């Protein structure tokens, strides 16, 4: 029985399936943990030092709601250089998640439909429901590429927003320029808002990252430092888009998150001067290691970005396969149905030390041949 005081809102979705595997993993002595959605590299030393310096120099009070100029102006200038849109404004959020929550709150009325590409990042479905929106899934199996005709067909008079994420969690799929342009133009033509979650943009292994904001000036972008600089616990993100939308998000931030963590904004400014290409290169090698290790036994679309692979379960459902992986090999992975209406695949995170990935590959081989 739910507690009688609880509102209906949180009954609309379940606790994160990722969290369940996480809790299970905490009980195992020496798990092969390929479940975690955060980099295994630490925050670069000079960035950690900048955070310490900020705390020591008493930058511990509230920050400006829109973010401290030291970081905001630097990011705004970079975005201006990239897109050159006169109307594009930027502010600092409490993680990419904070930006996503604010975006949905300012864009959606109850009953509005949101197109989400399946498989999708878990948070999308829960947050759309929390604000009273309706999730309309657009299937991307088997190659996890967006089909523009199918997307166009899913648009109805109630469609308010398209949620786009490339490189993608959980598939590692990266949308090519033609698709990104097509999607951007479709949204513009049909007068639907487009939100681009670019948190993995630094993690593109086989080509350049392309943002739909390049082709559609109204695109709202959310991004953050959690993945690119290994600082998910510092809760630092940013959002940019049409000034009229961004200003409403800032207004709401004032009455909710208040501000992003103040000392870490100074650290974020330092982070922008750090070259993270060695970390990205290391992740490309991890991707290659995993893809080669699974090649003989698994049906896998080669992931071109982020740090996930999303193979098909060689037998059973995704859930059955993951249960056996955990029981027999202490191998922690996430069943596909956490991210999808289908329960046919599973997610591997290769944001792990090479030794852990190698142990994982051995276990995957045994599981497939079982
Ligand atoms: N978007 C995607 C696609 C993600 O995978 C994540 C983290 N798992 C987030 C947003 C949220 O990141 P954060 O709030 O830590 O910036």
Largest sheet: 7 strands, mixed
SSE arrangement, N to C = HEHHEHEHEHEHEEEHHHEHEEEH
Total domain units: 2
CATH topology heading of the largest domain: Aspartate Aminotransferase, domain 2
The end-to-end distance, rounded to whole angstroms, is 41 Å
Mean pLDDT: 96
What's the overall geometry? Answer: globular
Number of helices: 12
Number of extended strands: 12
Give the uncertain stretches in residue-range form. none
Give me the CATH architecture of the largest domain, please: 3-Layer(aba) Sandwich
Instruction: Give the helix level as a range of percent.
Output: 25-40%
Q: From the helix content, strand content and strand pairing, which structural class follows? A: alpha/beta
CATH class descriptor name of the largest domain:
Alpha Beta
């Amino acid at each position: 029985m739910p507690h009688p005081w609880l509102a209906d809102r949180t009954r609309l979705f379940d606790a994160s399936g990722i969290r369940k595997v996480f809790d299970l993993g905490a009980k195992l002595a020496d798990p092969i943990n390929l479940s975690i959605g955060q980099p295994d590299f630490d925050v670069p030393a000079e960035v950690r030092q900048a955070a310490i310096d900020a705390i020591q120099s008493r930058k511990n009070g509230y920050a400006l709601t829109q973010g401290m100029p030291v970081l905001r102006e630097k990011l705004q200038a970079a975005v201006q250089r990239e897109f050159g849109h006169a109307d594009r404004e930027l502010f600092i959020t409490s993680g990419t998640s904070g930006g996503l929550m604010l975006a949905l709150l300012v864009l959606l009325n109850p009953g509005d439909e949101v197109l989400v590409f399946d498989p999708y990042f878990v948070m999308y479905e829960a947050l759309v429901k929390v604000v009273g929106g309706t999730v309309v899934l657009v299937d991307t199996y088997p190659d996890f590429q967006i089909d523009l005709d199918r997307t166009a067909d899913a648009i109805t008079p109630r469609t308010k927003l398209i949620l786009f994420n490339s490189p993608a969690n959980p598939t590692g799929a990266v949308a090519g320029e033609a698709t990104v342009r097509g999607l951007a133009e479709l949204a513009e033509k049909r007068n639907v808002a487009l939100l681009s979650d670019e948190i993995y943009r630094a993690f593109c292994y086989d080509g350049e990252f392309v943002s739909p904001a390049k082709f559609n000036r109204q695109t709202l972008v959310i991004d953050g430092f959690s993945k690119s600089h290994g600082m998910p616990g510092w809760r630092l993100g940013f959002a940019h888009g049409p000034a009229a939308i961004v200003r409403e998000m800032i207004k709401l931030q004032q009455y909710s998150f208040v501000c992003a963590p103040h000392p870490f904004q100074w650290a974020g400014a330092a982070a922008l001067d750090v070259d993270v290409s060695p970390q990205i290169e290391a992740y490309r090698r991890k991707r290659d290691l995993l893809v080669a290790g699974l090649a003989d036994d698994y049906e896998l679309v080669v992931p071109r970005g982020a740090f996930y692979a999303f193979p098909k379960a060689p037998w059973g459902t995704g859930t059955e396969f993951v249960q056996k992986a955990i029981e027999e090999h202490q191998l922690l992975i996430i069943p596909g149905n956490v991210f999808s209406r289908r329960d046919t695949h599973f997610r591997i995170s290769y944001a792990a030390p090479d030794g852990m990935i190698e142990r994982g590959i051995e276990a995957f081989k045994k599981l497939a041949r079982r």
